[in-house]
Amino acid sequence: MTRDIKGKLYDIQGYSVHDGPGIRTTVFLKGCMLHCLWCHSPESISFDYELAWFETRCVGTEKCGLCLDVCPQGAISKAEPEKSATDGSLLTKIKIDRSKCRNCLICTQTCPAQALKPSGYEATVEEVFRKVAKDKIYFGQEGGVTISGGEPMAQFDFTLALAKRCKEEGISVCLDTTGYAPWENFQEILPYIDLFLYDLKHMDPDKCQKLVGVNNELILDNARRIAQNEGNLQIRVPVIPKLNATKENMEKTAAFCRELGNAVTLVQLLPYHSFGSAKYTRLGLPYKLNITPPSDQEMREYLELMQSMGLKAQIH
Prior knowledge:
Layout: E1 6-16, E2 24-29, E3 51-53, E4 76-78, E5 82-83, E6 90-91, E7 94-96, E8 116-118, E9 121-124, H1 125-133, H2 136-139, E10 144-148, H3 156-168, E11 172-177, H4 183-189, E12 195-199, H5 205-212, H6 217-228, E13 233-239, H7 247-259, E14 264-271, H8 277-283, H9 296-308, E15 313-315
Parallel strand pairs: 2-10, 10-11, 11-12, 12-13, 13-14, 14-15
Antiparallel strand pairs: 1-2, 1-9, 3-8, 4-7, 5-6
Helix pairs in contact: 1-3
């Protein structure tokens, strides 16, 4: 049964007001074919579960230390003692040798403080639906469920089944996507999606390839086809200084959005931020981007550019 299809998730977030119109509940799926340097959710990239280390939750090996003896690779050891922020006593936390860690996640089963956690979990369509359906009372006329990622189209069977299940109960569905998936999949899911939150990373195919690992030909072609098949698009444009935040790229982005006609309901400009850098630390990954966010003046200039070309636009 389609309701028994399992998906890999890393979060379900209620009262989400930034993932489509109205109040929504967002289902975040794991796995993405793109590798954006500015990604603020590194736990969404891999299809596998990774070990996340929440250092502030660790109660210390003096009180616990259960994880020290269970790692088959010997990747967990004691760190140097430090003063506790609560009472000033010495606290010996752990450290992880990521070169030895194989993400077997055995240690997460022994940590009572949940300082060691897997970066996601598995659930069936029906289990996820029952959880999001509890929020239906808050959705009102505009809200609903947003299926996001990662790239939700990478778990297509699960995403399609969840979208269908929501629509059966009259719940609006948004799909937050990079657009990088076979057209046949978009064509099949299109009747169940009220709005596509559609990312445009860069208009130049070669520069897009360098920035995110894939060129944009399939992405742009799918956007055109969604528009031609009466789908609704909310275009999302990350504004990353030195990478895609140029007048030339923004003009080309605006021109492409105009080409899509009335299918584009809104263009959202998303200024770069580094708030997700702590997540990289939790996963033992390097945060490679070290740039200054765009200024308010820069964002206003790009907003005015979009609006001058007849687009409804906003800074998100």
